[in-house]
Amino acid sequence: MRHLSFLAVLAGCLVCALWLEPVLRVGVLRQWRRLALAIAPVAVVFVAWDVAAIAAGHWWYDPAQILGLRLPGGLPLEELLFFLVVPLCAILGYEAVRTSLPRVRAVLARSRRGR
Predict the structure, then answer these.
(1) Using CA atoms, how far apart are residues 88 and 40, in angstroms rounded to an integer?
(2) pTM (2 decimals)?
(3) Looking at the predicted structure, is the pLDDT value of residue 13 above 80?
(4) Long-range contact pairs involving 55-62 (C-beta distance under 8 Å, separation at least 24)
């Protein structure tokens, strides 16, 4: 089971963030092109950086904690998923705060007026 550790962390991130989409109606997943344009350039840079670090021997992954599926350049599949999942979760969190903050401020303003 230890070989699923990296995937379990990524799944946990998704579980903690994906509920924001339907509950708070943040609309991130509906704008998939915009989301891809936000995530893809950064993912490409960091994937290239990781591949270079692996090739130079500066970076490695514990084989006991990954599936063992490697992309060209020696990059584990989980690391590629990391560069997609973590930014997605960050964007969902940011949009949740951005869309909820005006609602919270309105509720607080109403409660202050009622005193």
Answers:
(1) 11
(2) 0.85
(3) yes
(4) 61/6
Q: Which residue has the tokens 């994906």?
A: 18
Tokens matching residue 96: 């949740």
Which residue is it, tokens 């514990």?
A: 62
Cα dihedral 88/77/51/9 (nearest 10): 50
DSSP string, 4-52: GHHHHHHHHHHHHHHTHHHHH---TGGGHHHHHHHHHHHHHHHHHHHHH
Read off the pLDDT of residues 19-72 as tens digits, 9 standing for 90 and up.
999 999 999 999 999 999 999 999 999 999 999 999 999 988 888 888 989 998
CA distance 22 to 36: 19
CA-to-CA distance for 73 and 86, rounded, in angstroms? Answer: 21
